[in-house]
Amino acid sequence: MVMKKWAAGVAVAAFAAIGAYVYLDTGRAPAPDSTFVLLDGSSKTTADLRGKVTLVNFWATSCVTCVAEMPEIVDTYNKYHAKGFETLAVAMSYDPPSYVVNFAETRKLPFKVAIDNTGNVAKAWGDVRLTPSTFIVNKRGEIVKTYVGAPNFSELHQLIEKLLAET
Questions:
Q1: pTM of the full predicted structure?
Q2: What domains appear along the chain, each with residue ranges and CATH number?
């Protein structure tokens, strides 16, 4: 009986340690080299994002959660943009470009919107297939957090504030 309790205690401690590791450090992988083609025909690269904390959001106009979270992404951008925060919304390759343009114009999205016509950007960022998928990139160009589904925006804001404060 004592041995079973001991083994259970070790298992709980191991799970707690792994959970703490995952929570405290998400690995900080470099953001993949990518070229984002923006709605105005210009382009941005991953290198252009260096020096800013950046939210990269893969989304689609047909994704109910994506559309529902967009006002909060706009609010987040407006709250932190003047402090060095950038947002880049990347529409999935299956999203008709006319729908993306219409969405961005009618919602007056204040940040850069790209269309991933070939699907190469989604592939480079971990073969993104589920939307929304959101990546938080620090000033050094490292992915520090990934959300699949809508983020917890109060947690996200705390993370952004912490990353903006880093030098």
A1: 0.83
A2: 27-165 (3.40.30.10)
